[in-house]
Known about the structure:
A two-stranded antiparallel ribbon has the order 1-2. Helix 1 (3-14) packs across helix 4. By secondary structure, the chain is mainly alpha-helical. It folds into 2 domains: 3-142, Four Helix Bundle (Hemerythrin (Met), subunit A); 157-268, Helix Hairpins (Orthogonal Bundle). It has helices at residues 3-14, 22-45, 48-53, 55-79, 91-97, 100-117, 122-130, 144-155, 157-182, 193-204, 217-264; strands at residues 266-268, 275-277.
Amino acid sequence: MSYQKIKKRTYEILEKGHENDDWSKRVDIFIIILILLNILAVILESVQWLKSDYETVFANIEKFSIAFFSIEYLLRIWSITEQEKYASPFTGRLKYMFSFYSMVDLAAVIPAYIPLLITVDARVLRGIRILRLFRILKLSRYNKAFSQIQYVLKSAKEELVISLCGVLTLLVIASCLMYFIEHDVQPEAFSSIPATMWWGVATLTTVGYGDVYPITAIGKLIGGIMAILGVGLFALPAGILANGFGQAIAKSQELEKQDKWSQEHELTCKNCGQKIHK
């Protein structure tokens, strides 16, 4: 088999499995199982007696995963030129390396190499190990739901930014007002505007932990107004996302119907052998 055919076949296997490609499907299933096994290992490793009794098992899972995901990442960069928009040997691969899926693949392996390159203390090392949870994002390549979430966030990004700006503006105004009103009577609870923002976040999200709350009449009035406004403001992004998901699902169903219709009405020309559609 020639170099070009090997590269093309590697690309086909690593990409999401096609209906008639058994090897691609098997690789997809194996990667999904390995990702889920990694997430399970990270969770179970936090239980001290499990970590001490099965430390070798956890270490072997991590070593195998790092080796496999590293090879997968390199093979994807090598074979990505088979995709038309990344066809250029240098700029195409460079462009792909900064794409979403490539960054996710890199995040899945880079935490394991950081301690080998630089010296880190135990606390930083624990934080690096937690980064292994980013491997769950690799499922976005194989799960339709992740693709729809990405599509919705991309299509509604302007509306979400506007609503976020509104929430942040209200948070700053509410925190500043509450600080000047409550600081003299509660200097410890409302010690500064940044500290008061904790109250603002808890109030605007209607969580209300009760650890910080106003005691003056004006403070209670402002707190009540902010709680009511918070319900409305936080309903905005929820409505935007719900509408976006509705549109994404409707579009997906329409495309599936079109694909099904095309398959049912697919014919082959008797003269040239090419596929034609009614």
